[in-house]
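User: tokens in, sequence out, please.
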């Protein structure tokens, strides 16, 4: 366990962010490798895999329910030096991970084709996406356990083991992808099914390794079968924090589904170009997201320790670092987009759409970085309802105008991206306002609680601007 209530906040962020980033980048690289090898199967295969991958936003929403709820409550317990509560929350979250994993398997088997029918542009794309989802669903189901273990470790300030396991699993996936997709060395090409199967095999291996590490090395939180009986009060604690955060990912799922729906009129090449551009954009945003995620457990432990000034300082330092990172990558995306998109498709129309997408949407990066930071701070504070509110606002301000504009005779694809710029900027401003309000409310309550427990008055917490 690492105490994040003392020491330099910037040093804590910079120590935790690189392993978090490596873990996320390796996962994103895995998705890009799948797209790279699938691209040889044609635009329908690329569009199908990209659209099917969007279903991961919905499953990631369920993962966030457990990951965010567990991380916030465990971090608060660590800050209070309450180890029994940290262990209880961890084991209750593991119970939920099993239930959510089984739910994902059932939903994947029953709803994959219906989902692809709703978002795909043609029958070939529907078939490719459905096949990929059926083989990829086991990977999604198994990641619930990984999410809970990784979040528990992050709450205690430990991030390197999760990163190493994720990196190894991605190496396995990258090694298996060409073998299973194109039949390298075997002569038995599985196509898009091979992409999903490679991911599922890699995740199984990663989960097994992480379980072995956790049982043999981790000491602050541990598996305790006596705490596996569902306890409604503690499950409610996890869900109260986690459900709004999961709703944020559900909002992203709806947002991406609307984009695919609007783009369906432009054909499979448009959906394929968007899928490639979206994944590349996600890759270059990973460093900033890693910094934001590192701020969450730091804020959480200091909330548990009732150190309001340090919570505010965490936000200010994280936001400054995120902004510097996002400006740097935005400039790179504007000046050299061809370096980021090279090699993903030989189709000229697909790549032209990807270039256009990246040039316009990269202007969003500073606003998106602030959204990342605010979201992580709300997680650390243990109140994620404002995150759901800001995400729902973005969905409404984007989706309804996009669908309306798509019915106009002169509707062009760049209108989709310009509308996204406006909606994201609005969400960033709303998130900052909501966080400032939460700081005033939550940290003032924490101070009053401490004053009641102390025999001497505590000096007022400094109200630094958010």
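Assistant: Sequence out:
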């Amino acid at each position: 366990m690492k105490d994040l209530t003392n020491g330099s906040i910037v040093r804590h962020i910079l120590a935790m962010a690189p392993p978090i980033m490596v873990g996320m980048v390796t996962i994103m690289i895995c998705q890009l490798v799948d797209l790279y090898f699938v691209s040889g199967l044609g635009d329908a295969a690329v569009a199908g895999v990209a659209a099917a991958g969007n279903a991961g936003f919905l499953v990631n929403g369920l993962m966030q329910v457990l990951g965010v709820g567990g991380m916030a409550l465990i971090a608060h317990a660590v800050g209070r030096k309450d180890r029994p509560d940290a262990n209880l929350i961890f084991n209750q979250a593991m119970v939920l991970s099993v239930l959510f994993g089984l739910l994902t398997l059932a939903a994947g088997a029953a709803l994959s084709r219906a989902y692809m029918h709703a978002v795909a542009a043609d029958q070939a794309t529907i078939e490719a996406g459905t096949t990929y989802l059926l083989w990829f669903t086991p990977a999604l189901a198994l990641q619930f356990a990984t999410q809970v273990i990784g979040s528990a470790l992050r709450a205690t300030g430990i991030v390197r083991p999760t990163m190493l396991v994720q990196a190894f699993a991605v190496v396995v996936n990258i090694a298996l992808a060409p073998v299973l997709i194109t039949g390298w060395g075997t002569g038995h090409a599985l196509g898009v099914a091979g992409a999903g199967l490679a991911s599922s095999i890699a995740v199984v291996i990663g989960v097994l390794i992480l379980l072995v590490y956790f049982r043999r090395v981790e000491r602050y939180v541990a598996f305790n079968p006596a705490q596996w009986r569902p306890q409604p009060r503690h499950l409610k604690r996890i869900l109260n924090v986690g459900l709004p955060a999961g709703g944020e990912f559900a909002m992203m799922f709806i947002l991406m589904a609307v984009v695919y729906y609007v783009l369906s009129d432009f054909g499979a090449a448009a959906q394929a170009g968007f899928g490639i551009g979206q994944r590349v954009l996600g890759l270059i945003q990973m460093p900033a997201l890693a910094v934001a995620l590192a701020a969450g457990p730091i804020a959480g432990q200091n909330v548990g320790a009732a150190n309001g000034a340090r919570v505010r300082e965490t936000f200010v330092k994280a936001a400054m670092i995120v902004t510097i990172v996002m400006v740097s990558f935005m400039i790179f995306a504007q000046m050299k987009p061809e370096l980021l998109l090279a090699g993903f498709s030989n189709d000229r129309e697909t790549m032209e759409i990807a270039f256009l997408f990246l040039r316009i949407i990269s202007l969003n990066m500073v606003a998106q970085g602030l959204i990342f930071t605010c979201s992580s701070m709300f997680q650390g504070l243990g109140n994620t309802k404002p995150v759901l509110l800001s995400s729902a606002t973005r969905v409404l301000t984007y989706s309804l105008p996009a669908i309306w504009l798509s019915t106009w005779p002169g509707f062009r694809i760049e209108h989709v991206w310009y509308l996204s710029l406006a909606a994201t900027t609005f969400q960033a401003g709303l998130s900052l306002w909501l966080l400032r309000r939460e700081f005033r409310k939550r940290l003032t309550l924490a101070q009053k609680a401490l004053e009641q427990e102390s025999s001497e008055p505590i000096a007022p917490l400094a109200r630094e601007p958010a």
